[in-house]
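Q: Two folds, back to back.
A: First:
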Amino acid sequence: MSEEFEKVNCLIIGSGPAGYTAAIYAARADLQPVIYQGLQPGGQLTITTDVDNYPGYPDGVKGPEMMEDLKKQAERFGTDTRWGIITSVDFSERPFKVEADDGKKMEANIVILATGASAKWLGLESEKEFNGRGVSACATCDGFFYKGKDVVVVGGGDTAAEEATYLAKLCNKVYLVHRRDELRASKAMQKRVFNTKNIETVWNHVTEEILGDFKGVNGVRLKNTQTGEEKIINAEGFFVAIGHKPNSDIFKGQVEMDDKGYVKTVPGTTKTSVEGVFAAGDIQDSVYRQAVTAAGTGCMAAIEAERFLSAQEVESSVSV
């Protein structure tokens, strides 16, 4: 093989709780992991202000701070942490061929995919302005901060229905805003929404602007899709629940995925359809999407990767 390829034992693509945890375990197992952090080093938590539900932080922690802690811990055990993104992969045979955005080419014995998933946003400037200051895409993550307050949830599918019913247990009032006159959510989820007294469904409306000041969100300006009339809802929280997109485009045709682009793994494991390639975190999890579950699968991926390599070494020694 050409000398232009760098030999890498364990390549981790993507950072965040899954990637960094995989790196910690892989490094401690002497797998000499190399991690490419991607476009957003640390993942979605780097744009999250307060994290109150991750074990070990009794007073909460800032998302960027927690990611920096995980990164330093991985590096303490010898992880080679690199800036940049992976631009192409070839998983047709081991060692796997991978290329980074700086043109560096690598051959990896094992690969852990940890590129996560990104929330779909409405694309409003005010949405960006108040992200982390009243705007969220995760009720389970941030709902606690709005206990006893009024909030808005935007969306019409199962995700929006789940977010609204979850928030209804914590908040004073939940406005579920949908651009159509009926929800796309399953009948069971719709029934839960309609049977929850403090959820008010606002039909045929879209969000024009999220309102607020230096303290954060204090209202939402909506527009009626049929009449064009505008109205303002007073609320301190704004939850976008129009779905997530797994960051898996680069792996299409390389590993098996579901119809939404989430990488399929063998149930109870992080093993993908390709031996020696593992997937951890939100790239393979469309259900929980939590930092702690992502970290858990990162741990699993590293342990399974180490066992895979050990089995390969045994097979090689037996065949000699």
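A: Second:
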Amino acid sequence: MTVASAVLSFDNPVFRTFALAASLMLLKLMLQPWMTVARMTKVKAGFRSPEDAKKSPLNPEPKPGQLEANEYVERSRRMNLNDLESIPGFLAAGFLFVLVHPPLLLAQILIWTYVAARAAHFAAYVTAQLHDVRAFCWTWSSLAVIAMAGYVLVKAF
């Protein structure tokens, strides 16, 4: 087994940790739009494109206002946009972090801090907590990614 394949192996506990966390974050990223769809379906509103308000099998009785912003739907859209701003950076930084062989405990702390902070951010956003609460959660996830990227920079030079 080459060094590269050993690093990117489930025998490497750092890679295993990252793979588990990355899979959870990818599921979050891909399932959030389904929450938006479920909310649109529930309230029959929050549609975005003009053709969405036309009569169809999924919209048999279009009503005026279906294209207007609906806070219940928009909240889910904002959560999805926040995921799109955060999760790709974690995936990239985490992958590079694995490649520089960090200590397992450091990797576990940074990676699971990110996941826990994103879970807390989701809970805060879905329950409409104050910006201060959401920002607190976001800050921890951001600092974890910054620490991973910084560690990679230090190790790369």
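Q: And?
A: Residues 44 and 52 are 11 Å apart (CA to CA).
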